[in-house]
Write a structure and sequence with these properties.
The structure is a single chain. This protein is an alpha/beta fold. The protein is about 45% helix and about 15% strand. The protein has 16 helices and 13 strands. The strands form four sheets. A seven-stranded mixed sheet has the order 2-10-9-8-7-3-4, sandwiched between helices. Helix 2 runs antiparallel to helix 13, helix 3 packs across helix 12 and helix 15 crosses helix 16. The longest helix is centred in the last third of the chain and has 32 residues. The chain is globular and about 65 Å long. The mean pLDDT is about 95. Bound molecules: (2S)-2-hydroxybutanedioic acid. (2S)-2-hydroxybutanedioic acid binds next to loops.
Length: about 400
């Protein structure tokens, strides 16, 4: 039976990670997979994580199962982090949370929930969106369609085109939105645009499905959750998938959460029972370790402050790299305006070069990025930013 299977090409992002590891050139630059790096090119364990981990391990006296919905302390701490402690949806008892194996696990659980509630639902995703959104969501059996989002001419959001499409969607359509630090473009909705979208979602009865994978790495933890907090206080139903991979640096620990806001407490309880059933039928229960660490950090004043400082340092470093990249690109290729990189947020930007130029950057200069020219800004370092800009200028130079 297995003889019939075709061999598949590698995943566009994870395949690039393997290609970079195999490259032995000393000048190689990894702008591929979305992993935060420091100026030495390392992805260190955060100090807050290290300390919390030690406390968790010292206290742990069993490896028995935790609970069907995961660690309740983690779930509550995540609700407070994502929504803000006194958010009306929380105080009204209309939010249910399940711990998930990473943001990916959360996204899939949410998709399976939507499918259980309404099998013919269509999920509308931005053009472009994170490559893995497509298999994660469509793998549940839901249909996917696109709405316009990114404007390559300005490096920002083509908001009128986005509104124009969303205005025509049938009621009960699902719309996937990025809370902040849009992956892959770095172009975010402004607070004013979130406010403008709200009446449209209300009047057309659309279900927002908001993905937040970078809370704290854009403007700040509160600002980055603006859209979630607004939509969840004003709309009857919202689904929110959250990842702790980047802001807690817990990538391999697969730590995330799914939060579902419903109209009534009874609906919320039904949703949680469905989520627990879905999780049980796929992987039974989520892994404990990462969630135990996040719980420890968020419920301990000192650790929480330390973590907040570490997230702020990561954010500031990315913002500084954005400025430096623009400066260096201007120096070596003044013909093109790369200023948009500085106004965008989070870990990613589109460089706006062709796939042939991307391939040439990789083969001739050992600079790695995905084919759509998405760069992970955090992969740049003070010592290689000039090399990167020179390499880009070389592939852009007329022949
Ligand atoms: C990325 O976009 O590179 C990250 O979110 C890592 C991944 O799993 O794709």
């Amino acid at each position: 039976m297995l003889e019939r299977l075709d061999r598949l090409p590698p995943d566009p992002i994870l395949g690039l990670m393997a290609a970079f590891r195999a490259d032995t050139d000393p000048h190689k630059v990894d702008l591929g997979v979305g992993v935060y790096r420091d100026d030495l090119g390392d992805t260190p364990i955060l100090k807050a994580v290290r300390q919390a981990e030690q406390a968790v391990l010292a206290r742990q006296n069993t490896k028995s199962y935790v609970a069907a919905a995961g660690n309740p302390g983690f779930n509550q701490a995540m609700e407070r982090l994502v929504f803000g402690a006194d958010h009306p949806a929380l105080t009204d008892g209309r939010v249910r949370t399940i711990q998930a194996p990473g943001g990916c696990g959360a996204l899939r659980l949410g998709a399976e929930l939507i499918r259980a509630a309404s099998p013919d639902s269509v999920v509308h995703v931005s053009t472009p969106t994170w490559a893995n959104h497509i298999p994660l969501l469509s793998g549940s059996g839901l249909k996917l369609e696109r709405y316009p989002y990114f404007d390559p001419a300005t490096g920002g959001v083509n908001f009128s085109a986005m509104m124009g499409t969303l205005e025509k969607l049938p009621a009960r359509s699902v719309v996937l939105l990025h809370a902040s630090c849009h992956n892959p473009t770095g172009a975010d909705l402004s607070e004013a645009q979130w406010r403008e979208l709200l009446p449209l979602f209300k009047s057309r009865n659309l279900l927002p499905y908001i993905d937040m994978a970078y809370q704290g790495l854009g403007i700040g933890a509160v600002e980055d959750a603006f859209g979630i907090r607004l939509f969840c206080s004003e709309l009857p139903e919202v689904t929110v998938a959250v990842s702790c991979s980047k802001n807690f640096g817990l990538y391999r620990e697969r730590t995330g959460s799914l939060h579902v806001v419903t109209q009534t407490k009874a609906a919320a309880d039904a949703v949680l029972s469905q989520l627990v059933r879905i999780a049980r039928s796929i992987y039974s229960m989520p892994p404990d370790h990462g969630a135990a660490i996040v719980h420890e950090i968020l419920d301990n004043k000192g650790l929480r402050e330390l973590w907040g400082d570490e997230v702020a340092a990561m954010r500031k470093r990315i913002q500084g790299l954005r400025r430096d990249a623009v400066q260096q690109l201007k120096k070596f290729h003044p013909q093109r305006d790369f200023g948009f990189i500085e106004t965008q947020r989070g870990m990613f930007s589109y460089l706006g070069i062709t796939v042939e130029q991307v391939r040439e950057l990789q083969s001739r200069h050992h600079v790695y990025m995905t084919d759509d020219s998405r760069i992970n800004i955090a992969g740049l370092r003070r010592e290689n930013i000039e090399y990167f800009a020179q390499a880009v200028a070389k592939v852009l130079a007329p022949r």
